[in-house]
Amino acid sequence: MGHQWLALALILAAATAPNRTAGNVPESEVPDAPCPQEDDPEAPSGEPHVAPRFSTCMLQCAAQAMLGMVGAKSSVSLKLNEGREGEDYEFCWMLHLRCQKGERLTKAFVLLNLEQPPGGGQPPPYRLLLTTPPSLRQYLRARQGNRRALLSREACGVRFDVTEPFLSAEGGQEAKMCVKAVCPEDDACGALRCPPFLATLWHSVPRPDG
After folding, report:
1. Signal peptide location in the record (predicted)?
2. H helices of 2-144, where?
3. Could you list the pLDDT tens digit for every one of the 210 residues in the chain?
4. Residue 11, C-beta contacts closer than 8 angstroms, at least 6 positions apart
């Protein structure tokens, strides 16, 4: 059963302003990884087709991002992927995501959408532990964003940059990336409004044949 994914591929007119990613970094300054697959890859033989089911958090993020992409007058593809949940708040995604030939991955984030504390204020400071690939095992801290970011905190949740595992992906089609939510308090994981989801940004490279 493959991971469910939601793609927003908005091809907009080129603008004079530099194209920017969710982290407000010019795409020309960000390393990228080309899509290794052929156009419109089909599901592996024998794999059943499952109707996508998206969390309300993912749909809210997608809707807000779509508005931001239109307003930014830039060409960018955003794909949102639900993870596969394991034990103790661990979630995994395939490192080889479905994509089209000519697309290049520029940024990847895991997003945590948290419930606001009853009395107001800020939610506890969550961290993520990158558990797989083992060679990149490390604690990830939330990235600071602003209200104008494509993946804003208000709409999409707290962002954790996981670009490195995708840029240095090794192994076959079953290679994966896993993260574990590190809850600051015993019951703090109950503040997760929805399961974490993955957001990847892609830049389309023009084909030689036009």
Report:
1. 1-23
2. 56-72
3. 445 556 554 333 222 233 334 444 444 345 677 776 544 444 444 444 444 567 888 998 988 888 877 766 666 788 999 989 888 889 999 998 888 888 889 999 999 887 766 566 666 667 889 999 999 999 998 887 665 677 888 888 889 999 999 988 777 778 999 999 887 765 556 667 788 899 999 887 766 655
4. 75, 204
When divided into structural domains, the chain yields a total of 1
- State the amino acid at position 158 in one-letter form: V
Cα–Cα distance measured from residue 114 to residue 91, given in angstroms and rounded to the nearest whole number: 16
Domain hosting residue 176, numbered range: 5-12+29-36+51-204
Distance CA 2, CA 195 (A): 17
The pTM (predicted TM-score) of the whole model is 0.74
